[in-house]
Specification:
Helix content: 55-70%
Order of helices and strands: EHHHHEEHHHHEEHH
Largest sheet: 5 strands, antiparallel
CATH superfamily of one domain: Outer membrane efflux proteins (OEP)
Shape: elongated
Distance between the termini: 57 Å
Mean pLDDT: 86
Structural class: alpha+beta
CATH class of one domain: Mainly Alpha
CATH topology of one domain: Outer membrane efflux proteins (OEP)
Length: 514
C-alpha cells in the first residue's frame, strides 16, 4: 500500500471534552477500544516463521552401516574419560571462565530487551503536580492596577496507548524473544567450547608429562649403553666411533626434555586462564603425573538431523533466522496506519482543597490515527532491508550447519583411524622393545655390533613416543567429536546474578573525581 505523507486525525480539544459528560466520555472510549480491540485480535502482517527452508540432510554419517539412533546421552561426556581432576577443573571453569560470564550477561541483556519491547503493548501513564506563586503586573493586563499575589495548585495525568493494530509490536516482541533464545544457545555454545578446550589442554599436558618421563627413562637406558660402550672401549674391544654415537644418542634424547617442559608449562598456563585464574594457578594440581585419559565408551552420534537441536551454534543461527523473519513483519507493519488512544485529566485551583471539585477538573480523551501517504519509498526500503537481512541469516545458518556436518565427519574419521594407528604402534613398540633387549644382550656378549643396539634403542624410543602421541590424539579426537555433536553442560546455569553488584545507587552526594 502507499506509504509516505502522514495524515494525523487530531484529538478533540480539552474545551470540547469539557462540554461532555463523564458518561458520554466513558461510553465513547469504550466503543473505540472495543472496535479497535476486535480489529486487533489475531491481526499481523509479514511472514510467519515456519522453520528453515528445506535443506539437503545426509541420512547417516559416512562410514556408518546403519542410521539407527544410538542410545545414550552426551551430557557430561567427559566423565567417560574417568579422570577426577579433569572433572574438577571443568566444574571450576564453568563457574569462573570470563567468556561464560560474558555469555550470561548477554542472556540477561536479551531477556531485559524482551521485557522492554513487551511494554509497547501497554499504555503509558505519567503524572505531574505543581504549586506556584504568581503575580500579574499591570503591564501584562488591561487593568492599571497590579493583581494581588496568588498560589496556583495544579495536577494532571496523561496517558497514551498505541494499539498494535497490525501486529508491529507483536513482531518486535517475537524478534526479541528469538534473540533471547539465540543468546541462551550462545551461552550453551560457550560452555561446549570451554569444556572441550579444558579437556584438550588437560590431555595435552598429560601427554607431555608422559613424553618427558619416557625421554628421561630412555636417556637413563642410553647412558647405561654409553657406559657399557666405554667399558668395552677402555678394555680395547670397542672403538671411539661407537662411544661417540652412544654419547650423542643419549644427549639427543635428553635434549627433548626442555622442549616438552616448555610445552607442558604452556598447557598448564592455558588451563589456568580457562579457569579464570592466573596462569600458574593450577600448576600445583598438575605437578603429579597421571596417565593420558583414555575413553572407554563410544559417544552416541545420533543422526545428522539431530545437530539442529543438539549443537548450540546451529540452534543459535536458526533462532537468529527466526528473529530476522519477525523483523520483516515489524518493518511491514510500519507501512500501515497507526492508531493511538490518548487521554489526560488535569485539575487546577487556587486552594489545594478545591482540586477535587468537578469545576476544577478538565479532561481530554480520544483516538488519533496516523496514515502513511508518501515518504519516497523509505518504509518499503526498510522492508526490503529486513528481507535481505533474513536471507543473510539463512545463509549463515546453512553455513553453520554444513560446518557442523564437516566437524562431525572429520572427528569420526580421525578417531577411527587413530585407533587403528594405535594398534599398529602398540605392536611396533612391543617388537622394538624385544629387539632392543635382544640386541643389547648380544652386544654384551660380543655377538652383535653396536649399530644394532643403536638402531634398536632409537627405534624403540621413537615407537614409544609415537604411541604416547597417538593416545593423546585419540583422546583429543574423542573430545573433538563430543564438541562437534554439541555435548556440554547439562546442569542449569544461573544467569540472573550479575558479576558486578552495584551498591548505593539511590540519590546521594558524591565527589566528582578528576
Amino acid at each position: 500500500m502507499p506509504s509516505h505523507l502522514f495524515v494525523a486525525l487530531p484529538l478533540p480539544s480539552a474545551k470540547e471534552n469539557c462540554h461532555r459528560t463523564p458518561t458520554q466520555l466513558r461510553a465513547g472510549a469504550a466503543c473505540v477500544a472495543l472496535m479497535l480491540g476486535s480489529m486487533l485480535a489475531g491481526c499481523a502482517v509479514g511472514p510467519d516463521y515456519a522453520g528453515p527452508p528445506g535443506l539437503e540432510m545426509p541420512a547417516q554419517w559416512s562410514g556408518r552401516q546403519t542410521s539407527r539412533r544410538q542410545t545414550g546421552t552426551l551430557d557430561r561426556w567427559w566423565l567417560r574419560l574417568r579422570d577426577p581432576l579433569l572433572n574438577r577443573l571443568i566444574e571450576q571453569a564453568v563457574d569462573a571462565n570470563p567468556s561464560v560470564v560474558k555469555a550470561k550477561a548477554v542472556v540477561r541483556e536479551a531477556r531485559a530487551t524482551v521485557q522492554q519491547t513487551s511494554a509497547g503493548l501497554f499504555p503509558s501513564v505519567s503524572g505531574t503536580a505543581s504549586v506556584t506563586d504568581n503575580k500579574t503586573s499591570s503591564g501584562s493586563t488591561s487593568s492599571a492596577v497590579d493583581s494581588a499575589p496568588y498560589t496556583l495548585h495544579q495536577g494532571s495525568f496523561d496517558s497514551s496507548w498505541e494499539l498494535d493494530l497490525f501486529g508491529g509490536t507483536q513482531r518486535n516482541i517475537e524478534a526479541a524473544v528469538r534473540g533471547a533464545e539465540s543468546a541462551e544457545a550462545d551461552l550453551r555454545d560457550s560452555l561446549v567450547t570451554l569444556i572441550g578446550d579444558v579437556a584438550s589442554y588437560y590431555v595435552d599436558a598429560r601427554g607431555y608429562q608422559a613424553r618427558i618421563a619416557l625421554a628421561q627413562r630412555t636417556s637413563v637406558s642410553q647412558r647405561d649403553t654409553e657406559k657399557l660402550t666405554r667399558s668395552k672401549y677402555d678394555a680395547g674391544s670397542g672403538n671411539a666411533v661407537d662411544l661417540a654415537k652412544a654419547t650423542a644418542q643419549a644427549a639427543s634424547t635428553e635434549a627433548n626434555v626442555p622442549t616438552y617442559e616448555a610445552a607442558l608449562a604452556a598447557d598448564i598456563h592455558r588451563l589456568g586462564i580457562l579457569l579464570g585464574r592466573p596462569p600458574d594457578s593450577v600448576a600445583s594440581l598438575m605437578a603429579r603425573s597421571a596417565p593420558v585419559p583414555a575413553p572407554r565408551m563410544p559417544l552416541p552420534t545420533g543422526l545428522p538431523a539431530d545437530l539442529i537441536l543438539s549443537r548450540p551454534d546451529v540452534a543459535s543461527a536458526e533462532r537468529k533466522l527466526a528473529q530476522a523473519t519477525a523483523k520483516i513483519g515489524a518493518a511491514e507493519a510500519d507501512r500501515y496506519p497507526a492508531v493511538s488512544l490518548t487521554g489526560s485529566v488535569g485539575t487546577s485551583a487556587l486552594r489545594a482543597g478545591d482540586l477535587a471539585k468537578y469545576s476544577s477538573v478538565s479532561w481530554s480523551v480520544g483516538p488519533s490515527v496516523t496514515v502513511p501517504v508518501f515518504d519516497a519509498g523509505k518504509r518499503l526500503a526498510t522492508v526490503r532491508i529486513a528481507e535481505a537481512q533474513r536471507d543473510q541469516a539463512f545463509a549463515t545458518f546453512h553455513s553453520t550447519l554444513l560446518t557442523a556436518f564437516e566437524d562431525v565427519e572429520n572427528a569420526l574419521v580421525s578417531l577411527s583411524q587413530e585407533r587403528v594407528r594405535a594398534i599398529k604402534l602398540t605392536e611396533a613398540a612391543k617388537n622394538y622393545r624385544e629387539a632392543a633387549r635382544l640386541s643389547r644382550s648380544l652386544f654384551e656378549t660380543g655377538s652383535a655390533s653396536f649399530i644394532d643396539v643403536l638402531d634398536a634403542e632409537r627405534s624403540l624410543y621413537s615407537a614409544e613416543d609415537s604411541l604416547i602421541q597417538s593416545k593423546v590424539s585419540a583422546a583429543k579426537d574423542y573430545i573433538a567429536l563430543a564438541k562437534a555433536l554439541g555435548g556440554g553442560w547439562s546442569d542449569p546455569v544461573d544467569t540472573s546474578t550479575p558479576i558486578i553488584v552495584d551498591s548505593n545507587t539511590g540519590p546521594h552526594w558524591r565527589e566528582i573525581s578528576q
